[in-house]
Amino acid sequence: MRKLVLGLLAAAILAVPGAPPAHAETMHLITNQGAREAFILRGRQGPAPTILVLHGALGTGERTAQTSGFAEAAAAHGFTAVFPQGINRQWNDGREAQAARVDDVGFLHELVTALVGRGITDRSYVYIAGISNGGMMTFRMLCESSELFAGAATIIANMPTRIGAQCLLRKPVPIVMFNGTADPLVPYEGGGVGFAGGRGQVWSAEETAEFMADASACQDARTRPFPVSSWSDAVRVTRIEWTRCRTGNRGVALYRFDGGGHQVPGQRQFLPLFLGPGYRGLRAADETFAFFYQR
Prior knowledge:
Radius of gyration: 18 Å
Strand order of the largest sheet: 1-2-4-3-5-6-7-12-11-10
CATH architecture: 3-Layer(aba) Sandwich
Largest sheet: 10 strands, mixed
CATH class: Alpha Beta
């Protein structure tokens, strides 16, 4: 019964009504594991900078386009936004045996190849972002296929322990992370994922960020608190940033939401009594593109 309740809860989080975005198309791919698809919002005609955005568990690509803020942020920067669909609405991020037979690393490789081959994507400017399960899949992609990407973002996600233990980035990738210290599903301090902690293990958010910073040979972190957005806002935000990287990239930034829960910053919060409070003072999607373009 508990599993049923948690499943319905997760489905409710992602089943948010919204109008289909304009200029949308669906790409269908035949892979070695059958038919797969991705929801695409074209930034412009011809090869364009592209961001892949991976949904959370029990989500869909189309719903993520409607609710994450990445569709609007990508359009504002002339990017094509691609929202792939995971098998059974989840990604094999390396935490759980139940998804172990799904080759999502191979699928995302094939997707990037197809996007470039069809003249949609500029191969030099492919980025990846992910939310929750999609964020943990993003870490797996960086560990196993970092050469594909020019930058990355993760939201309410940490490095899966098993993937991190064998992670060797072929190319350092700048990354921005967004994590709440009161997240009941993906613990900020690391450990078991899920309400009962039985959905695999992850590193802490700061251990994850430090690992990525070490891969880019960055200097010590600098901490900058954000101004309080309102007297009624119980969540406080601190940006921890690793810069002056010897690899020459933009380094690593971690937005720590003290008191924040399992919510996408800047978007409508869902079931805060169960998932913890959100934060409306900044949008994760906007901060992601600001990070990609910072000098």
